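Narrative of accomplishments. A recurring question from our advisory board has been how the design workflow behaves on a single, concrete structure rather than in aggregate. To address it, we present the structure tokens for one chain from the evaluation set, followed by the sequence designed for it. No filtering or post-editing was applied between the two.
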């Protein structure tokens, strides 16, 4: 059994909305000894929550490892049932290769007994073929996420960090059918994505903003926090909104008994809003707004070539250099789970004919990095060239978002 590496992910406080739990931790599969505060990338995983285990063992550590092994088997059965797939449970060694982490929702450890409520993270690429899901993992078009928090009569989006923004940062979106584009809140984010922008209806302005983030539509989850008295119950009214018209999809309310439960309240709100958005996607309510689609600039009218005549001209024109086509500056956003992925993607992009001066201007290991390049040609040709090199390409115009597809098992 491989040993584990742990890191503290978030603190879940017991709350009135049945959010009882200890510190939420994630255990990544590793061959090292237990170590804390070691992050893992869970963006490409299916997550199964609420797996209950109760096992005994000769020691506390042996009981804990046996509980995690049992959670892997139960989690696989729950995921297979959810996906409508049949068949038996694979061997423990096969499951070890598929499981990317264990989420500790609540655990009690005794001298020789382990009782816990766990979550299990499965690699999409490795488990998809076994469950017959290869090629069926359809997601939405890229959706720009703008979380808005109302508290004390003031609304904040990206003007400053909020507890609502942090809750969306903790959310593992790999198991969602919605492709969230989550800005990190730096640079121009506070200017472009503020609360005032949510009330705009101008499609031209929205198209310009979406082009900057390689997204095709907008999702606006809103929470309004009200407190009964200082340190007392906190009530959160949540709204799932969509589109440039800020259309309301659903609204619900959650409550915790003290300020200590605020993080758990918001985490539960994020998960429920994600479920609402996924259901809306399946029902067709998140269909892309045609008015937000990229509009190419009009083509310049060519100057007609004058017809030569047999009359000689007395005017002599000084020779000039032949003009060359102006290069287009492109912005490429790309996922960089590791430092090595930055150089490999840069090399792949530089190898495309017509590309010059490609350089990463904003690097975020484990997140979304940004590359600027000059391209001599039509941006649509660049899109096709990237797709021919195995990239999935989203966005339009001079801003594109590229990603490597998940490798299928056996590749």
């Amino acid at each position: 059994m491989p040993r584990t590496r742990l890191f503290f992910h978030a603190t879940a406080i017991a709350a009135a909305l049945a959010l009882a739990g200890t510190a939420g931790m994630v255990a990544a599969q590793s061959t090292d000894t237990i170590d804390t505060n070691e992050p893992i990338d869970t963006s490409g995983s299916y997550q199964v929550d609420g797996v209950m285990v109760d096992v005994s063992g000769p020691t506390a550590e042996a009981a804990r490892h046996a509980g995690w092994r049992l959670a892997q088997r139960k989690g696989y059965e729950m995921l297979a049932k959810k996906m409508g797939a049949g068949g038996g449970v694979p061997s423990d060694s096969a499951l070890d290769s598929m499981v990317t982490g264990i989420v500790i929702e609540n655990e009690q450890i005794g001298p020789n007994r382990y009782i816990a409520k766990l979550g299990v993270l499965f690699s999409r690429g490795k488990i998809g073929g076994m469950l017959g899901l290869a090629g069926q993992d359809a997601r939405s078009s890229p959706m720009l996420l703008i979380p808005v928090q109302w508290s004390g009569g003031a609304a904040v989006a990206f003007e400053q960090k909020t507890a609502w923004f942090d809750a969306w940062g903790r959310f593992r979106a790999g198991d969602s059918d919605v492709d969230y584009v989550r800005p990190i809140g730096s640079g121009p984010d506070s200017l472009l994505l503020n609360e005032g922008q949510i009330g705009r209806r101008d499609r031209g302005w929205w198209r310009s903003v979406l082009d900057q983030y390689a997204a095709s539509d907008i999702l606006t989850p809103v929470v309004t926090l009200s407190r009964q008295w200082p340190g007392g119950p906190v009530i959160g009214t949540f709204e799932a909104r969509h589109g440039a018209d800020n259309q309301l999809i659903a609204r619900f309310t959650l409550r915790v008994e003290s300020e200590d439960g605020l993080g758990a309240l918001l985490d539960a709100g994020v998960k429920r809003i994600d479920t609402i958005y996924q259901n809306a996607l399946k029902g067709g309510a998140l269909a892309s707004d045609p008015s937000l689609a990229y509009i190419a600039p009009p083509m310049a009218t060519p100057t007609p070539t004058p017809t030569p005549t047999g009359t000689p001209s007395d005017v002599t024109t000084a020779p000039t250099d032949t003009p060359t086509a102006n290069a287009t500056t492109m912005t490429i956003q790309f996922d960089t789970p590791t430092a090595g992925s930055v150089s490999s993607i840069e090399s792949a992009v530089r190898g495309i004919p017509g590309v010059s001066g490609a350089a990463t201007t904003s690097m975020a290991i484990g997140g979304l990095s940004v590359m600027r390049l000059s391209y001599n040609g039509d941006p649509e040709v660049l899109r096709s060239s990237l797709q021919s090199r195995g990239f999935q390409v989203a966005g339009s115009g001079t801003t594109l978002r590229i990603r490597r597809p998940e490798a299928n098992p056996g590749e």
